């Protein structure tokens, strides 16, 4: 019994992984089908997708999924044979069916049999198959399945699910989802979409009378989904890459044997030049092999970003339909690879940015016609690798952003004062949209208006050691560009020395290194500044930021670029550039410290989180400590 159970568990996990990817492909093909409703290749591909999912569900005895997929499969069979003509109402019904199937995947992943599809959805599919009008049929959003009796921390109740799949409902501990009342929702209630990878796309209903839950309830549901959404613990790796790791491991084993032999010879007193030369060659060989192995292992964590991008065409389609806009999401650079852990953490920011482009950036169809633009708006989502960084761009051809309006809104909401607003240039004004509570919408809707979106984007991007920049032209559109390191496992750093202590700062923030000539330092508004190529930059002493007394006047400056501004970080000296593996500090998280690493001589080096350090220093009256630095230099 236990052997069969183990096999069933593996089969179920494989089914969920493969079927979820297949359903995402079906979603994207459905979006394409709306543009080309008579494309037989697309119709055949979608038909085969539902047929494959139905076959896997039938093998696992998930009858609710089988019945739903069978009806949808029949619908596409009629579309293929031209017995039916695809209409927007029929497409909404199909989209609703894919959303319910995705929720059924979520129920299985949590260790529970899924509920039957909502009666309203079954009635809508039957109406389409029988040729009856759809106006009188309300398609409801899927209801969640009853969870397993086990706690979430214990994982799914595989025994109960196994018995249920075999039809042994009377077995002890078996969990069968009880029928629940179906609640109708507004089309694509996007507030509930953001963070749940198993339920990232909600179906769009075909009725116009459905009532959405209150905004407060939507926000609570979103927070609950965010807290409960687990990250995937598995990864698919190309066998070629695993073979490369295996080969390198074998080469390192041979080099280790060679070093062991040489060590024995040296310990025996054999110190001739040939032995020392052989030892040097073996160490150099080991150095090369370890570097190659490190790169090969890192590549096993790399995944094409297209696996993340494939979620967004459906999201943009549903939101545009809800808002009455015609928007096409164009994707490029899907083959660009990024660390898997970063892909998971990147989902929320990209969802916010795509929704923001469709909701805020794109005008209504009437406004676009008035301004001479095509009725169909274009939102571009692209990724490309530049050096050791990934650039992700979200571009729209919408209305653009007006810096003066953004400054005015920020003042109205009490986020900044009038004096600060007047001192900001256009580029700095655009950065105000990342402030918590900022929104240009006067009324809260199910899509936006709460001011809790863009600040989350910036926070999450900074957590990934990345930055986000904005370019916008009024009347032409906006572009958000995210710059991220390829991986978080290895961080390129610049190691500096202050008061005799080494510290590491992220190399991604470093623009250049300059000597500090103290006669060039000037006081501006109580802060030390230096003019570098006609740009006035503030000088921030690293010792002062750390709260230390300066033993000597800093001799060098690191010109650094943070998300908002450039500045000079004053340090005593440099040790050099290095690629380090960051280790988190157990049970403590000091302000401004991202973690620790070991230097070549075995000493501990703290890796600084410059954004956090600057924010903490500014909040703790850093101007006083900076003025002390001025007293010593002026």
UniProtKB/TrEMBL annotation:
Enzyme class: transferase
Domain Histidine kinase: 247-488
CheW-like domain sequence ranges: 490-619
All residue ranges annotated as the HPt domain in the record: 4-108
Pfam families registered for this protein in UniProt: CheW, H-kinase_dim, HATPase_c, Hpt
Domain of life: Bacteria
Function recorded in the entry: Involved in the transmission of sensory signals from the chemoreceptors to the flagellar motors. CheA is autophosphorylated; it can transfer its phosphate group to either CheB or CheY.
Name of this chain's protein: Chemotaxis protein CheA
Species this protein is from: Iodobacter fluviatilis
């Amino acid at each position: 019994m236990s052997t069969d159970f183990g096999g069933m568990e593996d089969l179920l996990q494989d089914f969920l992984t493969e079927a979820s990817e297949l359903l995402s492909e079906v979603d994207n093909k459905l979006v394409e089908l709306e543009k080309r409703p008579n494309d037989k290749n697309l119709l055949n591909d979608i038909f085969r997708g539902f047929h494959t999912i139905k076959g896997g569900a039938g093998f696992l005895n998930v009858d609710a999924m089988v019945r739903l997929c069978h009806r949808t499969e029949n619908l596409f069979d009629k579309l293929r044979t031209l017995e039916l003509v695809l209409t927007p109402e029929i497409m909404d019904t199909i989209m609703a069916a894919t959303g319910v199937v995705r929720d059924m995947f979520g129920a299985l992943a949590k260790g529970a049999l899924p509920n039957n599809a909502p009666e309203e959805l079954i009635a809508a599919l039957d109406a389409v198959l029988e040729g009856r009008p759809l106006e009188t049929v309300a398609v409801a959003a899927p209801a969640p399945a009853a969870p397993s009796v086990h706690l979430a921390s214990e994982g799914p109740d595989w025994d109960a699910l196994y018995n249920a799949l075999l039809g042994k409902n009377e077995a002890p501990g078996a969990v069968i989802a009880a029928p629940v009342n179906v609640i109708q929702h507004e089309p694509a209630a996007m507030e509930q979409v953001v963070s749940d990878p198993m339920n990232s796309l909600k179906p769009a209903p075909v009725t116009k009378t459905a009532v959405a839950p209150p905004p407060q309830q939507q926000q609570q549901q979103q927070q609950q989904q965010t807290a409960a959404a687990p990250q995937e613990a598995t990864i698919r790796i190309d066998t070629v890459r695993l073979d490369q790791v295996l080969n390198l491991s074998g080469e390192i084993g041979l080099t280790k044997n060679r070093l062991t032999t040489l060590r024995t010879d040296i310990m025996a007193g054999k110190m001739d030049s040939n032995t020392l030369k052989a030892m040097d060659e073996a160490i150099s060989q080991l150095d090369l092999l370890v570097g190659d192995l490190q790169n090969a292992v890192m590549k096993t964590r790399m995944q094409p970003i297209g696996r993340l991008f494939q979620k967004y065409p459906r999201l943009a389609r549903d939101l545009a339909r809800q808002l009455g806009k015609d928007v096409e999401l164009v994707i490029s650079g899907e083959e660009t690879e990024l660390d898997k852990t970063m892909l998971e953490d990147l989902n929320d920011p990209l969802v916010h940015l795509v929704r923001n482009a469709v909701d805020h950036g794109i005008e209504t169809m009437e406004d676009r016609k008035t301004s001479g633009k095509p009725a169909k708006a274009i939102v571009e989502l692209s990724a490309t690798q530049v050096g050791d960084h990934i650039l992700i761009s979200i571009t729209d051809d919408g209305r653009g952003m007006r810096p003066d309006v953004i400054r005015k809104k920020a003042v109205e909401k009490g986020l900044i004062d009038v004096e600060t607003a007047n001192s900001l240039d256009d580029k700095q004004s655009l950065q105000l949209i990342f402030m918590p509570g900022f929104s240009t919408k006067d009324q809260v809707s199910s899509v936006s208006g709460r001011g809790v979106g863009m600040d989350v984007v910036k926070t999450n991007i900074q957590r990934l050691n990345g930055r986000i920049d904005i370019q916008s032209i009024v009347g032409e559109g906006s572009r958000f560009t995210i710059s991220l390191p390829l991986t978080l496992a290895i961080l390129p750093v610049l190691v500096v020395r202050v008061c005799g202590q080494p510290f590491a700062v992220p190399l991604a923030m470093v623009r250049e290194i300059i000597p500090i000539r103290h006669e060039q330092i000037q006081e501006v508004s109580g802060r030390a500044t230096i003019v570098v190529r006609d740009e006035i930059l503030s000088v921030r002493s690293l010792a002062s930021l750390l709260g230390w007394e300066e033993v000597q006047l800093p001799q060098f400056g690191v010109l650094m670029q943070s998300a908002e501004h450039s500045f000079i970080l004053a340090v005593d000296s440099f040790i050099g550039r290095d690629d380090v593996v960051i280790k988190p500090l157990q049970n403590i998280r000091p302000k401004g410290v991202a973690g620790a690493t070991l230097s070549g001589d075995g000493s501990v080096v703290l890796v600084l989180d410059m954004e956090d350090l600057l924010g903490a220093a500014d909040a703790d009256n850093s101007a006083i400590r900076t003025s002390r630095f001025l007293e010593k230099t002026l």
